[in-house]
Amino acid sequence: MSTIFFLIGCSVLVAIVFLLAFLWAQNNGQHTDLYTPSIRILMDDADDKQTTEEQFPASK
Amino acid sequence: MAILTGTTCYHCGNDCYTEEHQKDEKSFCCTGCLSVYTILSKSKLGNYYQLNQHPGETQASGNKQFAYLDEPEIIQQLIDYTDEQKTIISLYVPAIHCSSCIWLLEHLYTLHPGILENRVDFLKKQVYIQFNPQQISLRALVELMSSIGYEPLISLQDVVKKNSRQTDNLSKKIAVAGFCFGNVMLLSFPAYFGLSETEAKFGEFFSLLNILFCIPAFFYSGKDYFVNAWQNLKVGVLNIDFPLALGIFVLFVRTIVEYVFNTGHGFADTLTGLVFFLLIGRFMQQKTYYHLSFERDYRSFFPVAVQVLNEDGSEKSVALEKLVQGDRILIKNQEIIPADAILLKGDALIDFSFVTGESLPVSKTLGEIIYAGGRQTGSALELEVIKPVSQSYLTKLWNNEVFQKQESTKIKTFSTKVSHYFSIVLLALAFGTLLFWLPQDWRTGLSAFTAILIIACPCALALSTPFTMSAALSILDKNKFYLKNTDVVEQLAAIDTIVFDKTGTVSIAENQGVIFKGQLNHVTKDIIYAACKNSSHPHSRRICSFLGHRNTVAISHYQELTGKGISAIYDGKEVLIGSRQLVTGQKDGKQEFPEVHIKIGEQYIGFFELKQRFRKDLNQLLSNINKNYHTYLLSGDSNQDAEVLQSYFKSPSHLQFKQSPQDKLNFIKEKQEQKAKVMMIGDGLNDSGALKQSDAGIAVTDHINNFTPGSDAILDGSVLHLLPQFLKFSKSAVKVIHISFGISLTYNIIGLSVAVTGQLSPLFAAILMPLSTVTIISFTSLATHYMAKKHQLS
């Protein structure tokens, strides 16, 4: 039965780790802008070797 | 030259009227758009055009001067951080609207090596830029951004909002409280299900852990309630924080005492749950519109600096507040005159629409005083400042006591009123029970006393307002009505008098309502269009948009006759467009509307009548609210629209014209002294005083990115006709709060009837508290959305 003490200790420790991770992220400013990163991830980095012609196809 | 039908600008998507601006087989509407494209294509930033079609904004309007950004004093006020190697600045760029904008602004560094890093915050429309001040100056940076179509809006007041630390702390507090709450719940279950003799040591261990979890929830997460309650007590106010703080405190003390004396399980779960739910409620109440500001004064509207002429004729940028009497300032076309000044040189044609609502520009002669806030249209002016900025005619308004007062004088919210009585009744009941039990059994007495304070802790009461209001706010938000905070809903509900401003609020002085009296054929239309196209006068612009897009015909000797009109030569014939006096030689008579007369050669063609257009459904709107409200109209304009407008209002005396900003403020004050609750609806700087003085000030705007004066709420002009629904909805929202107060009081009474006997079990408290909370949250959200449906708000 005494394993319960150990297990509860473990579970509380794990919970504390997650809490600290959240607080760290908060302090780090990771939650200040929740919208822009969702757009940013969709944009590819431009390939510098691309020619201007490739980048600027003529409009219809 | 033929017009290109169906050709849109590759950069901004506007229609192209000429073939002049072309490059790489792409058409552009103006040189501005073309040059942005050229810069981007040279720097291989063409991806900008790949992400979205026509991502740019039109660059047709002229460039601004950024000379003031060389002044170290001004730079100092704008930047966030600087050292030898780098400077960090946050700039507000209103043009940010799509993913292309983000992409381009985050690739600024490819345009200049001095730019180290940049990041866009899309919702706030801000760019954070790190640059090396050795390599690129702030002015060069801003000019670079301006050249690619992203001109930052620089103002010394509140455009870039510093990230408020408080919201960050709130989410941290919620995280800690939630963490404690979850763990305590888990550890409390065994106690509720009953522990056998052999498991007793577990019970003790769990209780100890529970106490440990209570400590951060109490001291860190719950701290604000004690601070607030104490601050309010000091000024003699019993608000909702007082019973809350008392409840939290008693819960904590009793939990510890029960553990130490081993008399029970304690209330750790109720305590942590209470703090957690309360903080959630507080979080709901905080709604921030990053792109809107409700606190603007004249400083946002005025430029940051003006060009001052030194004795030797050289120019220097001087920050507005440094401007002193006697300074000679230079005002260029489309610039705002920042202080009352005397005209020394130049043709002044001042557009005061911004200050008075009057749509016609006024011409001024040399030596005349020009009041601050006017915008010069035409050539550059030289003026001598006679009063510093803060003492000028317009800005003096902000020295009025209304602007010094704290917000607390506005209508008291229902919750503040109720919690006052609630606290008194609660204390009386608690002490009454204590006194009743003391002679018989002090233990039961003390236990009943604390039980009352615990069970009556108005958690549900404290949550009903935030949850109803945040639901109401998001509904209004969807309908383009943006409220400063949740209290405004209650202010709206209490209103009985509505005061409208005219120009910009009930009327739009734009391209409609133009009537031509006379005969127009295609040729004359082309000629008029060609002449008016060159002029930036509002009348010319309205005429141009009335005529639509015409063929461009060649005209020569184009000339603007200040305050009169324009003249030009077409095909050897003189073209005169302008006032009656200029064109026909007759005196300007009494006119109902501004008129623009046309003469080509010797032939008088006719005249344009420029009516102001009223907002859609204005008639319906006013007849609707006339039923339940007193309505008034205050206009800075002359009474040219009086006849049309009178029919909308109950009596002609409810319309007042030629009102100065101060008059408007005084009018509202007068009504308030007669015990009226006044709502002011206005749009301009000239309404600022009235908006501030009123019980609910609403700023109307046609473009949400435009600056609006300080107000309690911002309403998109296109939904002004929904105003009656908004008002009814706010009343319903207040009704929902009343009902939910009733529900939570019922829970309190059930709890209290148990608590007075002193037999409050932790399990009972632990069930009752979350149950009442969940009831209130679901009731308020459902009821508010139902009310929105009922009033036909999406």
- What structural class do you assign from the helix and strand content of chain B? alpha+beta
Structural class of chain A: mainly alpha
**What distance separates the N and C termini of chain B?**
48 Å
DSSP helix count of chain A? Answer: 3
The fraction of residues assigned to DSSP E strands of chain A is under 5%
Strand percentage of chain B, roughly? 15-25%
Enumerate the spans of chain A where pLDDT stays under 50 for 5 or more consecutive residues. Answer: 47-60
Helical run tally of chain B:
25
From the alpha-carbon coordinates, what is the Rg of chain B to the nearest angstrom?
Answer: 33 Å
Mind summarizing the main beta sheet of chain A? none
Q: Widest sheet of chain B: strand order? A: 16-30-29-28-17-26-27
What's the CATH class label of the largest domain in chain B? Alpha Beta
The biggest chain-chain interface is: A-B, 31 and 38 residues
CATH architecture classification name of the largest domain in chain B: 3-Layer(aba) Sandwich
- What is the count of distinct domains of chain B? 6
- Our measurement of the CA-to-CA distance between the termini of chain A, rounded to an integer number of angstroms, reads 76 Å
Instruction: Write down the overall mean pLDDT of chain A.
Output: 75
Please report the total strand number of chain B as a whole number.
30
